[in-house]
Design a protein that fits this description.
The complex is a heterotrimer of chains A (156), B (638) and C (289). Chain A has 156 residues and is α/β, with parallel strands linked by helices. Chain A contains 4 helices and 7 strands, in the order βαβββαβαββα. The N and C termini of chain A lie far apart (48 Å). The chains are: A alpha/beta (156), B mainly alpha (638), C mainly alpha (289).
Chain lengths: 156, 638, 289
């Protein structure tokens, strides 16, 4: 129970157009007040439980997202917010884009939409909480994602 | 038996200094070990012998008196010769003045019948410091000097060890001698040793700084000798005689006020108080063992030793108040200056001056509690500062720099050395260690004087700041590769020994107080401070310091940490660098916007624009000179 | 040390974090209300600590959690000394140990953000340490002893003679609680430029230890304010609670300042205020015994 009552999120903007980011931030405003659920937007991965990723992964930031994922202590969940984070969205198959976040790190919940409404994001966070609890119960650890030096597209 | 111990304490270091000259370099290590063991044995023996006055009468007296006279002439001739050789006119002038004063004393002084050494508890403490800490430092030097000389292409180790050992003899004589004439000889001998050792490198900087030290100490020496001449007009020829004469009688105090003030100025110069502080800073060009031995834990203590011994002559008078204000001013000013320094040795130098200022302030306050604080601070400060200086020297050999900023990540490179250095710093600023305990005592004692206490409060905050940032820097991890580092027993034994001594003396603080300091304060002021030490508390009439409880908390913290360390299995991760870490190379590197790698570097805050030397030194000179003039005027007029 | 003393000590050790936790909860609730939000549950700080304890212990430097233990241990010690009315000057020195432990702990991680935060916190020491000791000095001047028992047994409350030091102490409270405008060393709100300041590299149990330490610190610092009216515990409690909520209010209506600004404020305004107050005490020779 303890994890579900205090989910601290780290928000990673991964090549997003800022649309989803605005909506994530909107969750913290008085209108939606994510802090009702104990949600805090924390700056450092070392103290976060939920990694909220917006935007698709490209060759430049792939190591960034892996690094941050590796630096979150277990149990942890990853929430892909928006179409780009889920599948690559409008940038799918773009020359510099690898794809959705799940191409790089394991994603536990998806919030589709371009961009998703704050209610949907909050719903996603709440859905992630039960996954977080299960991970704690089952002692499921996130695997350390290997970095691949300087990643460049094969067709570049 | 005390007579023999006293003679041995002076003779043995001289013997060793000759041995260092006679024997080859390869044997120095063993000599230093022997010196350390004999030094410890002799000083402990002196403590066991108890206190007493050693009179030297006829027929030996005549011989000794002649030796003293010859040595004094030699000292003055040496000063004049060397300053003439290097064309250092101010020093030459001061040397000639000294010679004139000496000639005057020689022709006019009444014929002395005998001389005496006065061994009281304070002398015992000083002997312990000089012979245990001092020989430990010489032992450290045997592991240090080879590398030092190699870097600088020098081969002067014979001079080095000869002077260091000879200095110990002079210092032993200084803290035991009661006859002012003899005390003055030892006083000048320490000055001379200091000059030789500061200019050890024989480069221009070293020689200039050596002459600065010589000149400023000669100013102090001249004040000292004028004081002796003035005292002789009142038929006072011994240090303890001043206290006996002045007693607690205000009228008698007024009679000796001027000579006492002059003697104090001698003490200020030796302790490098403002405005004399520049010689101590210049002295930092000398090898680290010299800084540790002469310029932090022993020689500069001679100045405060003298001032504390003179307490009965100014306790409670306006002169005492002036001295207290002056000392606390030096404390705050030098703490502020230390804040702006990046060079570790300069930080330590300013910290030394500041703490000696605190001792002088405590002595100036003159209440039994304050005097007890002054004596205790001399002891604790000497041990901590010796450790810190030696650690700085060893750090310099490990990383090749004495800049505090370069020391980040040291804990990974040399864990034991860093722990010892951190222990030294903690003992300088945090409870339950001795220096803070005495700072607490002196603050409580100073609380009756508004100016002094405000200075002490500001200085104390500044002290915390500059040590905290240095300590944080050396304890920060950098994930660099371990530096190749040779651990020599000659260097690490003294370091560990001093570290243990800090802990032991801090735990045994009340025993030390009971055995040494209370009787000494009774001798000086005829009343003992109302301090008791039941249940691990240091209790005075206005406060209580539960050092035992703090030790228990510290021990508990260690126990809890080691008990819970494996409960939460630690998993090591890289720094948070916004995900742009460079995991292959240095972990403190990150990828910048151009896809190349940059090293992140963070520097401490030094407040150069507020507390820098260029901003504060002139102000410090002005105010401290004014305060000295006030002290002198107060001594004469009021 | 008799049985009652041990009981009181145990009570303090267990009750203080509960009070501190409630303080923190109310603080967050007030903040939320001031922003027109519902806000987290009152026990949210407790949930946070519980969660942190169940997380992985991720460290940069294996010894970094040692400093957390020292931080909490010395806070408990200083709080106990406060409760047992020990020497106020010693309490402040013991409290300094815990502050330094947290700073060195931050620096020991070696992370650039943590080192920036720690450097700034060191400057905060420069700002508040003199005020704290002047506060101790005021107690001495008014009672003739540094022992806090005298303040409790006094006939007049301390605040009557020390209004200026009280003002300075409120600001010290603000600095020490790391609340805006002085939240430049570690802050929930500064993560854009500072991440989490000197606590950046702490996670899981280590961070939980720091949070628990904060609970003790809340109680300890409000305890220092309580001393201003210790003759009547009820009024003392009201004043200390009011001071705490005043700081919360300030936290919500001000923006973060530079640390230089704080240093200037402290060494010009606060120090002068305190010294004027102290000078008054010297010359009037007032006593509250």
């Amino acid at each position: 129970m303890s994890l579900a009552k205090s989910p601290w999120i780290i928000h990673v903007n991964c090549n997003s157009c800022n649309g989803c980011d605005i909506e994530v931030v909107a969750c913290l405003t008085p209108l939606y007040d994510a802090e009702r659920f104990g949600v805090l937007n924390i700056g450092t991965p070392k103290q976060a439980d939920i990694m909220v990723v917006t935007g698709s992964v490209n060759y430049k930031n792939v190591n960034v997202i892996k690094n941050i994922y590796n630096q979150i202590p277990d149990p942890k969940v990853v929430l892909a917010v928006g179409a780009c984070a889920s599948t690559g969205g409008i940038f799918h198959n773009c020359y510099n884009v690898i794809g959705g976040v799940d191409q790089v790190i394991p994603v536990d919940a998806y919030v589709p939409g371009c961009c998703p409404r704050p209610e949907a994001i909050l719903d996603g966070v709440v859905a992630a909480l039960s996954i977080l609890e299960n991970k704690k119960k089952g002692n499921i650890k996130g695997k350390e994602v290997k970095l691949k030096g300087k990643e460049v597209p094969s067709n570049a | 038996m005390i007579e023999n111990t006293v003679m041995l304490l002076i003779a043995v270091p001289i013997l060793f200094s000759l041995l260092f000259v006679a024997l080859p370099k390869s044997l120095y290590k063993y000599l230093a070990w022997a010196f350390f063991i004999i030094g410890v044995a002799l000083s402990v023996n002196l403590v066991l012998d108890g206190t007493g006055v050693v009179e030297i009468g006829e027929p030996n007296f005549a011989m000794f008196e002649n030796i003293v006279l010859i040595l004094e002439v030699l000292v003055i001739l040496f000063i004049i010769a060397v300053s003439a050789k290097y064309k250092n006119w101010p020093t030459l002038a001061l040397g000639i003045i000294s010679a004139a004063i000496f000639a005057y004393t020689f022709t006019n002084a009444p014929h002395a019948e005998g001389a005496s050494f006065n061994i009281d508890q304070f002398s015992q403490i000083m002997i312990l410091i000089v012979n245990i800490v001092g020989t430990a430092i010489i032992l450290f030097a045997t592991g240090y000097m080879d590398e030092y000389e190699e870097h600088r292409h020098l081969n002067r180790q014979k001079t080095f060890y000869f002077t260091m050992s000879f200095f110990l003899a002079a210092m032993n004589g200084l803290v035991m001698a009661d006859t002012l004439g003899w005390l003055f000889l030892f006083w000048e001998l320490t000055t001379l040793c200091s000059f030789v050792l500061i200019s050890y490198n024989m480069d221009e900087e070293g020689i200039n700084n050596g002459f600065r030290a010589l000149a400023l100490n000669l100013v102090g020496g001249i004040a000292f000798s004028v004081g002796i001449i003035l005292l002789a007009t009142n038929d006072i020829a011994t240090l303890s005689g001043i206290g006996v004469y002045a007693g607690t009688d205000a009228a008698a105090m007024a009679v000796v006020a001027l000579p006492v003030a002059l003697l104090c100025i001698g003490g200020f110069a030796k302790s490098a108080q403002m405005p004399f502080q520049s010689w101590l800073l210049g002295a930092m060009v000398a090898p680290t063992p010299v800084s540790a031995l002469l310029h932090s834990s022993t020689m500069v203590n001679a100045g405060v030793f003298l001032v504390v011994k003179l307490v009965p002559a100014f306790a409670g008078s306006s002169l005492g108040t002036a001295i207290a204000v002056y000392g606390s001013f030096t404390f705050v000013m030098c703490s502020a200056l230390a804040l702006s320094q990046r060079n570790a040795k300069r930080v330590l130098a300013y910290s030394t001056i500041a703490n000696l200022g605190l001792i002088i302030a405590s002595a100036g306050i003159g209440t039994p509690l304050a005097v007890a604080a002054a004596i205790m601070l001399i002891l604790f400060h000497a041990i901590s500062k010796a450790l810190l200086f030696l650690c700085t020297g060893e750090i310099e050999h490990t990383i090749g720099s004495r800049d505090i900023e370069d020391m980040s990540g040291l804990v990974k490179k040399a864990p034991l050395l860093t722990t010892l250095a951190a222990l030294g710093m903690v003992s300088m600023l945090l409870p339950p260690f001795g220096v803070l305990l005495t700072k607490w005592v002196s603050m409580e004692a100073a609380s009756s004087n508004p100016i002094v206490i405000v200075f002490l409060i500001l200085g104390s905050a500044l002290t915390t700041v500059y040590y905290a940032k240095w300590m944080g820097t050396i304890l920060s991890s950098s994930m660099d590769k371990n530096a190749v580092h040779h651990k020599k027993p000659e260097t690490y034994f003294p370091l560990s020994f001093l570290g243990l001594a800090i802990v032991a003396t801090s735990i045994l603080v009340f025993t030390i107080y009971d055995y040494f300091i209370r009787p000494q304060v009774e001798i000086l002021l005829n009343t003992a401070p109302t301090v008791s030490g039941q249940a691990g508390q240091f209790t005075s009439e206005i406060g209580a310091f539960a050092y035992a409880a703090i030790f228990v908390a510290l021990a508990l913290a260690f126990v809890i940490y080691f008990a819970t360390r494996n409960m939460f299995t630690p998993r090591t991760a890289g720094y948070y660098m916004c995900g742009e870490n460079n995991m292959e190379m240095d972990k403190l590197m990150f990828r910048n916007g151009l896809c190349s790698y940059d090293k992140s570097s963070v520097s401490n805050i030094y407040l150069q624009n507020t507390f820098g030397e260029s901003k504060l030194t002139t102000l410090g000179y002005a105010i401290s000179i004014i305060l000295i003039i006030i002290a002198l005027a107060g001594g004469v007029l009021i | 040390m008799n049985m009652t003393d041990i009981l009181i000590a145990a009570l303090v050790i267990f009750v203080a974090p509960i009070i501190g936790c409630l303080y923190a909860g109310i603080d967050r609730k007030i903040t939320a209300r001031l922003q027109g939000r519902v806000g987290p549950p009152l026990l949210q700080p407790y949930y946070d600590v519980k969660k942190l304890l169940s997380k992985d212990n991720m460290v940069v430097n294996p010894s970094q959690n040692f400093y957390v233990v020292v931080y909490v241990a010395f806070l408990i010690l200083s709080l106990l000394m406060l409760v047992f009315r020990a020497d106020i000057l010693m309490i402040i020195f013991v409290y300094t140990v815990s502050s330094i432990a947290l700073i060195v702990g931050g620096m020991s991680t070696g992370s650039p953000y943590a080192r920036v935060g720690s450097s700034r916190e060191i400057m905060a020491i420069l700002a508040y340490e003199p005020i704290l000791i002047l506060y101790a000095l005021a107690i001495y001047l008014l009672t003739g002893t540094f022992k806090l028992s005298a303040v409790v047994d006094a006939s007049t409350p301390l605040l009557v003679y020390t209004p200026l030091i009280f003002i300075a102490m409120i600001v010290v409270l603000n600095i020490k609680l790391k609340k805006s405008p002085f939240d430049y060393s570690t802050s929930h709100h500064a993560h854009q430029e500072l991440v989490k300041g000197m606590l950046t590299e702490y996670s899981g149990p280590g961070m939980a230890g720091i949070e628990i330490g904060h609970f003790y610190e809340y109680v300890f610092l409000t305890g220092l304010i309580f001393v201003f009216w210790a003759v009547n515990p009820l009024i003392g409690l009201i004043i200390s609670a009011a001071a705490f909520f005043f700081v919360t209010l300030i936290d919500n209506i001000t923006a973060r300042v530079y640390w230089q600004w704080m240093l200037k404020l402290s060494w010009s305004v606060l120090l002068i205020l305190s010294i004027v107050n102290i000078a008054f005490l010297y010359f009037s020779e007032a006593t509250i015994m």
